[in-house]
Amino acid sequence: MSASQSCLFCRIVAGELHAERVYEDDRVVAFRDINPQAPVHLLVIPRKHLVSLGEAEAEDAGLLGHLLLCGRELARQEGILERGYRTVINTNREAGQTVFHLHVHVLGGRFLGWPPG
Ligand code: DGP
Fold this sequence. Notes:
The protein is of the alpha+beta class.
């Protein structure tokens, strides 16, 4: 089975699984997290299957920047840019990564504690 067939987020990108999409372009798709941890909790993912930030290559630098800038624009759209929002990329098991397709969490709408758990 190919990565795109077995990967949950590849299946969302392909439209095989439903997600509440808030943005998409030729490189990324953004949708609401199914298990929100804050009033605003979005995921911004590349269409390209990248397992994690740990496996990104130098050639992915532009894509990584685009993910962050899309997250910023979505924070603006959701009305949390000025109040404050957090972008999180969990990388591998001890950091809490559970879906192995790179994704940027965009969280806000409440005070967020630090340090993270
Ligand atoms: P992480 O723990 O960093 O790998 O985050 C994975 C996130 O993905 C987690 O917050 C829940 C979310 N998630 C898992 N499955 C689905 C799904 O089928 N749809 C949506 N919208 N989000 C999902």
